[in-house]
Design goal:
Layout (H helix, E strand, L loop, with lengths): L1 H7 L6 H12 L6 H8 L8 H14 L2 E5 L5 E5 L10 E5 L5 E4 L4 H18 L9 E4 L2 H16 L1 H7 L1
Parallel strand pairs: 3-5
Antiparallel strand pairs: 1-2, 3-4
Helix pairs in contact: 2-3, 3-4
Bound molecules: zinc ion (ZN) (3 copies).
One zinc ion binds next to helix 6.
Length: 165
């Protein structure tokens, strides 16, 4: 199916492209171009970082992978699995430490809501939705606790109180 998408758009499946796709299909998580380059390099030493970038652009254009931005100045890539895919997940992104939590333990209410939203959009815009990327931004548990500690320290510490006054 993935190979079909490339062929349909007139791209050849070169050994280099296949090696990059294999890495993306066999690795969970969000890989940067450098990560992918380092993983492809041992099995396919002739590939350069520039051609990894070029291939990733092609795969994004064809819709096989998504390019994601987690606010850490580095693009990440992952396989674009539709809601039926076994690795389909949504993201919780901490704006403080930039950690990304993948979750796929969707509740029935959540699935129902998404389906209603997509059906509604289909009717309003006559737009057939095949996939979605959902990212929630916020603060993770550890970062919230750290912030609380800082506030508490600030309120209790005599040196901090003196500096303030
Ligand atoms: Zn989803
Ligand atoms: Zn955090
Ligand atoms: Zn992800």
């Amino acid at each position: 199916m993935v190979n079909g998408k490339l062929k349909d758009r007139g791209y050849r499946i070169t050994a280099g492209r296949k090696a990059i796709l294999d890495v993306l299909m066999n690795t969970e998580g969000h890989l940067s171009a450098e990560d992918i380059y380092l993983k492809v390099h041992p099995t396919y030493p002739s590939i350069g970082l520039a051609s990894v970038y070029r291939t990733l652009d092609i795969l994004v254009n064809v819709g096989i992978i998504y390019k994601l931005d987690f606010n850490d100045r580095k693009a990440r890539y992952e396989l674009a699995e539709g809601p039926g895919g076994k690795r389909h997940h949504h993201h919780l992104i901490c704006s403080v430490c930039n950690q990304v939590i993948d979750y796929k333990d969707f509740s029935p209410e959540e699935l129902e809501l998404l389906k209603r939203v997509e059906d509604g959009l289909y009717k309003r815009y006559d737009f057939k939705i095949t996939n979605h990327v959902i990212q929630f931004y916020g603060t993770c548990d550890a970062c919230r606790n750290r912030e609380k500690d800082v506030v508490q320290h600030y309120e209790l510490c005599e040196k901090c109180i003196k500096m303030e006054n």
